[in-house]
Amino acid sequence: MKYNYDKSCLKGLGPGPFMKLAETRTAHIEQAADSVPTSIYRPNILAKALHPNVQYGVIKEIKEQPGAKTYKIVADKEKGTEALAFFRAGQYICFDLEIDGATIQRPYTLQSDPADALAEESSYTVTIKETPNGFAAPWILANWKEGTKVVMSGPLGNFTYQPLRDAKNVVAIAGGSGITPFCSMAAAIVSKNEDFNLTILYGSRKHDAILLKDELDAIASRSGGRVKVVHVLSDENIEGYEHGFISLDIVKKYAPAEDYSIFMCGPKGLYAYEDEALAPLALKPRRLRKELSGEYGDPSRNPKYPAKTDVETYKLTVRIRGNEQQITCKSSETLLVAMERAGIKAPSNCRSGECGWCHSLLVSGNVFIPEEPDKRRMADRKFNWIHPCIAYPLSDVIIDVPVANF
Ligand code: FES
């Protein structure tokens, strides 16, 4: 057989080493010193810098927003965090919070330019919106002051731009605090950490309730036309703004003539509306990306939820850290929320079924898991592993919660 390449570099390569892989490895292990290796490998240093288990920060600045506050967080060097980890625009971090005796985690999207994490004064910025009847947000808004110390996870999440999958032009559809990932993407485009064009269609009720308006305008003005922001007001019809909801007509009016992807982030009602409104575009699945936004909420609105007239209360047995604890869990709340309410420090991050951090074994009992946020692997489904952040009890339940990474 003739080859049209120089195969001299392959000399000495053959199947031999692969056939003896296990044997060679065993021989190396037997010859190795009986002590923990002290070598430090660069990939490990990089992996630790990009994916720290925990980061310590201090609130440096607080800015009031309409119905929200923006917090600038810097590294807490006193606690050993020299710099905050770099991230991809669109990712989030999880804060550890101790509220009324309960230890909980809450995810918030980073809105700042990823380049800020690499600056001399390494920083993140998050905006937290008032949520009536919320648990963590009202507590944060009332308690975080300048100088407050915070404990955070490393950056997490997959709602990021991927050039191999996404079009060069992105039309972002945002509602409420769903603007934060796009604020970060826009800043990253200006600082050249991302390379795509972004048209943001941002829905708010009134012009004086627009979150991060000044920040968005400032970024767009520095983007050389690569970032455009269109405000759509549902409750006001005033000059300079679009009126109504982010309809098909509005998308068609501002979307570029070339190929584009749609990224969506906002409340669940926005997704339901846009799914219907944008159906005529018949976008390929990879051209439509949605951020899974927080907790699933009331399971009874899912048509597949077994019909119940009243909220029931079940017994939830939790095996965690070698202990077994029995608590109560309402049918309307997730197993994770019930554990947090009972003061059990259960692992979690995204709280929306995506990250797998809360991964637990369903030892016995039945739970309802809505299909859409269920991102478990096939093997997990087969062997009864569940994500307690999206699992609702339908009977008494026993779960085993591993905490190896927590
Ligand atoms: S916390 Fe992410 S899957 Fe449950």
Uncertain regions: pLDDT < 50 for 5+ in a row? none
Q: If you compute it from the alpha carbons, what radius of gyration comes out, rounded to the nearest whole angstrom?
A: 24 Å
Q: Would you list the SSEs in sequence order as H and E? A: HHHEEEEHEHEEHEHEEHEHEEEHEEHEEE
Bound molecules: FE2/S2 (inorganic) cluster
Helicity range of the residues? 10-25%
Number of helical segments with 4 or more residues: 11
Average of pLDDT:
92
Proportion of beta-strand residues: 25-35%
CATH architecture grouping of the largest domain = 3-Layer(aba) Sandwich
From the 3D structure, determine the CATH topology of the largest domain. Rossmann fold
Instruction: Please give the number of β-strands.
Output: 19
Question: Please, how many domains?
Answer: 3
